[in-house]
Design a protein that fits this description.
3-stranded antiparallel sheet; about 120 residues; rod-shaped; 2 helices; Ybab, Chain: A
């Protein structure tokens, strides 16, 4: 029975082999960049600096700092809003930098296989 499709001897042609090597290099670069980003921290403030929140690249809140002036037992809701605002801004900064870093690695793909917009 004749063998259909494939390549004689099971070898990939040169271009396919190069593409696979390039994909493996890119995967390694993305893994390295992901690890690097996980070790970084981003900080954001709200209320004119009254609340400062620091988040990690693992999307974890590392610290929350409050100035004495913002702690008002009669207005807990404002303090809660400021903490949420600072946290969201710190996470937005982290996501933006992370996406930019991944795009710099995967940017050469264009929209190859629909993957271009993933990062």
């Amino acid at each position: 029975m004749a063998k259909r499709g494939g390549f004689p001897g099971g070898n990939m042609p040169g271009n396919m082999n190069n593409l696979m090597k390039q994909a493996q290099r890119m995967q390694k670069q993305m893994e390295d960049k992901t690890k690097e980003m996980e070790e970084k921290q981003w900080e954001a403030t709200a209320g004119g600096g009254a609340v400062t929140v620091t988040v990690s690249g693992k999307k974890e809140v590392v610290s929350v700092k409050l100035s004495k002036e913002v702690v008002d037992p009669d207005d807990i809701e404002m303090l809660e809003d400021l903490i949420v605002a600072a946290t969201n801004e710190a996470l937005r900064k982290m996501e933006e930098e992370s996406a930019s870093a991944m795009n710099s690695i995967a940017g050469g793909l264009g929209n190859f296989g629909g993957l271009g917009g993933l990062f």
